[in-house]
Amino acid sequence: MKNIKKLIFPSLAVCAVLTLALRLVPRTASAQGEPESGSYDEFDAYLEQELRRLNVPGASLVIVEGDEIVHMRGFGQARPGGETPTPQTPFLIGSTTKSFTALAVMQLVEAGQVDLDAPVQDYLPWFHVADPQASAQITVRHLLNQNSGLPQLPGMLNLANFDNSPDALERQVRALSTLELPRPVGSEFEYSNLNYNIAGLIVEAASGESYADYVQNHIFDPLEMNHSYTSQAAARQDNLAVGHRFWFGYPFAAPDLPMPAGSLPSGQLISSAEDMGHYLIAHLNGGRYGDVQVLSDAGIDELHRPAVEAGAMGIDMGDYGMGWFVEEHGQTTIVNHPGTLPDFFTYMALLPDQNKGFVLLVNANHTMIDKMVFMEVGIDAARRLAGETSAPPTLGVVPWTLRGLLLIPILQIGGAALTMRQVRRWRQEPDRRPTGARKWALNIALPLIPNLGLAGMFLYLISSGMLEFLRLFTPDIAWIGLISGGFALIWGSLRTGLVTRALRRPRES
Q1: Is the pLDDT reported for residue 439 higher than 80?
Q2: Most buried residue, 78, 397, 448, 472, by most Cβ within 10 Å?
Q3: Full-prediction pTM beyond 0.90?
């Protein structure tokens, strides 16, 4: 999620500034507070308004309090022209999967099969990165706390790796043997899917079960998560919601996006609102759901314990535990995790001081929208549920920024037409050609700057390996980058030649 900052595209820089502003600018309070006991009409109305504002096709909500589900609600449509999502409608839950992987590891810790402070190589003897010393230093705890030193970018790129062979996960981790770590092991936080994919392999090695079977047998089944899955094929038999991708702020159905099997432990589980309610109840009640104990009270506390300061691009993200962010917003402690996929978004939050929690499942996504706008909605919803006053949205400009990208090719075409018209006029009326040094600055150098920027972005997309990831998660930005960047690369050279030739042409008597 954070190496996107390397992209040299103006809209990304704008969105980063907007996100920083959200963290730094004081927020104006509204009159909205905690809903009356047993009534969530105002809470529903808030979410319905925000989902409509953001053109979200469909969503499913669950709220828990203590050891009960107290409210469930569906919004919009589960599929184009279809029904409203029910509490049993499965959605892909993205990176909230990481909390399941962390829970699985902690179950094995309590069973004496895994030691949090043991090196990864104790369970995966073949595991190594380019530095042998760093390879031996990375522990299970480092993986779960996201401070192993493993970088974010390779884990992002694996989300566009659709190898569905049974050993896809292991082969992707073995491919890290030449990876140089950007920072020392244990030194600081960097969110990376690699950490949780490796943790998934440790679950397999320690338990003797595949990751999918372990989660089914030790988490889904005990918690009665009867509409939760580890494969899309099974979920489709249970009316899996249809995901959508945002193009310029508008959702388009994407029913056939493949699933990267090698990233299952970091972000590919599937669940429903009701099932996620069962999951939150276990987390709020010391690992207990009904008569079942999936983890001890101490184990749950360890998962939620703030362990590492989390941040990216200079933005404070609170702390990271094991599959959970721990943040302070106003007077409210929110233990949460978002889930990001090309076509689904999830926000999961626990409010330990109020003994409440909620999950919002959304069947549409775009990385630039979810990291800012969806997260803002999720945090505001958590504060409302906690009884705090909330605030009007501050990042509604982000979808409009994406729509503004359409101006780039329009301006390019208009600029090309004006240039051709100007060159033709200079040829027909030589006396109207500019003279002096300014003619080169105004007619060659200045117009070349935006073309060089767009051409540079085009070359970066082609050479960096990010193209396939961006085509999945930010399709509008990727295609604008390819089309406008490619056009700028060609037109920038052609325009420079045309204008130079026209300005150098001798004046006729």
Answers
A1: no
A2: 78
A3: no
